[in-house]
Amino acid sequence: MSKDTLPGLTLCNNAVLRRATRKLGQFYDDVVAPSGLKATQQGLLYQIHIGDEPAMGAIAAALVMDLSALGHTLKPLIRDGYVETFTDPDDRRIKRVRLTPQGSVKLDEAMKLWRVAQQRFEDMVGKEQAAMLRAALDDIAALDFGIPPAAP
Amino acid sequence: MSKDTLPGLTLCNNAVLRRATRKLGQFYDDVVAPSGLKATQQGLLYQIHIGDEPAMGAIAAALVMDLSALGHTLKPLIRDGYVETFTDPDDRRIKRVRLTPQGSVKLDEAMKLWRVAQQRFEDMVGKEQAAMLRAALDDIAALDFGIPPAAP
DNA sequence: CGCAAACAGTGGCATATGCCACTAATTGAA
DNA sequence: TTCAATTAGTGGCATATGCCACTGTTTGCG
Which residues are in the HTH marR-type domain (chains A, B) (predicted)? Predict the structure, then answer.
């Protein structure tokens, strides 16, 4: 064999997960790139699309992502005119997000490419295997690791 | 049900993978935090540790990570004195990496915490399930998506 | 009503990652 | 030997993510 570079960390669930994410991320990024979007951005636009002018907090929760991280990630999309935000009139703490017309067009464009990536990936690992993997990963994302704060 | 916030992107292999990575990353980070390291840094130190003064390229390959990204990630560890680099005398293009004494100590400290995280995680999802998941993720990291360049 | 606690975001700072252009070293011919 | 092609890293720029400290809003008492 010629590609057993360094074995090792293959035991850390977190490390292995990150490694796979880098690899798959590069693949989806490559395929979606012609649209000018990163795979993460395409996913975010999609998440916004399927929501009904979702609040930032709702999006962050759905993506299991830090609220401030979402805010940062949203900036380039706002700057490029794909997304816009507005304060919820019923609760001015809440800021809702929606796609602009250009954003919708861009999402359509990216989704076409995404389907190609998705298909290619599933052709390689098998549709069932992919579904099982997603289920397992969904479970992880839904795990409830203990209580960070204290219980007074 | 009360927590079905937004469904959706659960079909994109890449998005689901990233989401799980964020979640698990936060968990491992939290547990390893007392050492002052991020889980990614602990993993990187470990990778260096198990290698024999590995070259940067070898580490990057093992982690399926961009070489420049590795360089960037290494900087804070070098700055904090946990890692040092040196040019390979037989090929001065190559820069090798090794842990400093403090780096070894710090890694030991972090590994103790890592074991706790690893154990807690496997207690939750099951040792077998975790092993299967790692295997599946390893396969993904090893996938060979077509040829980016052309074949002249 | 009035104010403290809880909630939703923002901004700043730091790490994690990638891509690209560029430099330094080697290698492989001609 | 000499020079083009290849290899290994670096630096700059941009996105991806997190945590923390703060600000503006609401909500819930007393």
Answer: 10-142
The pLDDT tens digits for A54-90 are 999 999 999 999 999 999 999 999 999 999 999 999 9
Mean pLDDT for B33-42 is 96
Distance from CA of A102 to the nearest CA of B (A): 21
Is residue A37's pLDDT more than 90? yes
Do A49 and A107 form a contact (C-beta atoms < 8 A)?
A: yes
Nearest-Cα distance to chain B for A140, in Å, is 6
Render pLDDT for B102-140 as a digit per residue (tens, 0 to 9): 999 999 999 999 999 999 999 999 999 999 999 999 999
CA dist., res. A89 & res. B145, Å (int): 48
Tokens of residue B19, six digits: 């989401």
Give the percent of chain A with pLDDT over 70: 90
- Indicate the length of chain A as a whole number: 152
| Distances in whole angstroms, Cα of residue A59 to Cα of each of A42, A121, B3, B27 | 14, 26, 13, 20
Cα A122 to Cα B12: distance, rounded to the nearest angstrom: 11
Task: Mark the nucleotides of strand C covered by protein, meaning any atom under 7 Å from a CB.
Answer: 7-21, 24-27
Please identify, in words, the CATH class of the domain defined by A19-134: mainly alpha
Unique residue bearing structure tokens 């907090």: A57
Instruction: Provide the angle, in degrees to the nearest 10, between the axes of the packed helices A127-142 and A101-125.
Output: 120
Q: Name the class of domain B12-140.
A: mainly alpha
